[in-house]
Amino acid sequence: MGKELIFKSLRHEKTQRVPWVPFAGVHAGQLRGYTAEEMLTNADNIVESLEEVAKLYMPDGMPVIFDLQIEAEILGCELLWAKDNPPSVKTHPLDSEKSIPCTCKFPSADSGRIPVVLEAMKRVKSSLGEEIALYGLLCGPFTLASHLRGSSIFMDMVKDPEYVKDLIGYCGQAACRMADLYMKAGMDVIAVVDPLISQVSPKHIEKMMLETFTAVFDYIRSRERFSCFFVCGNASKQIEVMCKTGPDGISVDENVDLPKAKEITDRYNINIGGNIPLTTTMLHGTQEDNMKKVIDLMDSVSDHTNFIISPGCDMPYATPPENTVACAQAVKNPERTRELIKNYQPEEIAHMDIEIPDYEASEKVIIELFLLDPEQCAACTYMLAAVTDAYEDIKDMAEYRVYKYFIKEDIARTAKMGVKNLPSICVNGDIRWISIIPSKEELINVIKEYAGK
User: Is 354 among the domain residues?
Assistant: First the structure.
């Protein structure tokens, strides 16, 4: 039974095969013809979509909902909805007021969209929960704090770290409230999804966040449930400090070298999940590409204990279902899959003909943002905001361009520019920030340097 495979893997026991967890998110709605908003606001649509995921993708575990804005909406953030992505945060209630919200605003069973989510969880638990491990995903404390404070939080980390620590502590309490609601609704695994962790140094995490994250994972463990710590972006340097917070598992995306990360998680006896590339493979690849990537991932680690195969993050809405089916087949039938792909040679998107700007001939400094998806990836959203927030001060000296890693031409451009990790910012062709969000002052100073001012 798939559920027991997940449990054994998170208990750090050997399993007869590698478990498989497709993060279908709003892609689940696409399987039944629903937009992201139609799925994320209607319990009937969520249940119908997840039953389709179970039928097509044969998961051992799966999330019921993948939306990191549920808590932010309850705490006063306005959302911007899209047809093919979860909503993004539009406004930040603390952007001009450095304060800690009242605990009376904490999420409850009847606030915001939580009643819809809880109803879906209970129904999916009844229909699928005997065979499939169900994941309840909540917004991690640092990302939630960023939703409330906006990009100013990155300057606060330098100028007022005690405030940041207090705000993250508040968001950690909110996370425990959400975890409690989800556990009561029958969720087997509580996943703390904090994409922005990759944007700060391990030193800052230890100073301002370690205590709160540890408390959240301790709380989940005290309720005898499993926990996972999800991160996006190039979190290679953050893996060890993430282990110190004490989750049962960690999930990483394609920016992380999985074998090297597993060496670290194995030292702490923590499960690691990942990291099928979302766009180059799942969205734009063929079935053979997806099978080969899964086999390559499984072959990249010698010990399959403490290991789960999954997409790097929430699957793109338009992912062809046949590609995810191919991943499932590769996980469950690896030897047969090896035979199918033994002579396969993948086509390289990076070989497309892409024109690089002539930076020296440009009248203005050219800022180029290489992002996964500014509407779906929180780290990308705040990196873009760092540029747009400073743009009034630099617009006479600079222009900016945004490249999105779900567009084939932009994938090729990313490769041609030598950008290895996302999100990143280039200035006149030089890679200046890799998975780090610059402060407004730092960005302006760099642009002035390039402009010769």
Answer: no
- 395-400's contacts with Cβ under 8 Å and 24+ in sequence apart are 397/364, 397/365, 397/447, 397/448, 397/451, 397/453, 398/364, 398/365, 398/366, 398/367, 398/447, 398/450, 398/451, 399/364, 399/365, 399/366, 399/367, 400/366, 400/367, 400/368, 400/369
> Mean pLDDT in each 10-residue stretch from start to end of the chain (453 residues)?
96 97 96 96 98 96 97 96 93 94 93 98 98 98 97 92 98 98 98 95 96 98 98 94 98 95 98 94 92 95 96 94 94 93 75 85 94 78 90 94 88 87 90 86 93 83
Asked if the bond preceding 423 is cis, omega within 30° of 0, the reply is yes
In the chain, the number of structural domains is 2
Extract the runs of DSSP E, i.e. beta strands, from 225-270.
226-230, 249-251
With contact defined as beta carbons under 8 Å apart, do 273 and 21 qualify?
Answer: yes
CATH code at 374?
3.40.30.10
| 136/147 Cα distance (integer angstroms) | 20
Residues 83, 13 within the same domain: yes
Domain residue limits at 47: 2-341
In contact, 171 and 141? CB cutoff 8 Å: yes
**Cα 390 from chain centroid (whole Å):** 26
Cα separation, 304 vs 12, in Å, equals 10
Kindly report the pTM of this predicted structure: 0.86
**CA–CA separation, 231 and 119 (whole Å):** 27
Cα 18 from Cα 303, distance rounded (Å)? 10
Cα separation, 60 vs 1, whole angstroms? 8
According to DSSP, the residues that pair with 404 across neighbouring strands are 371
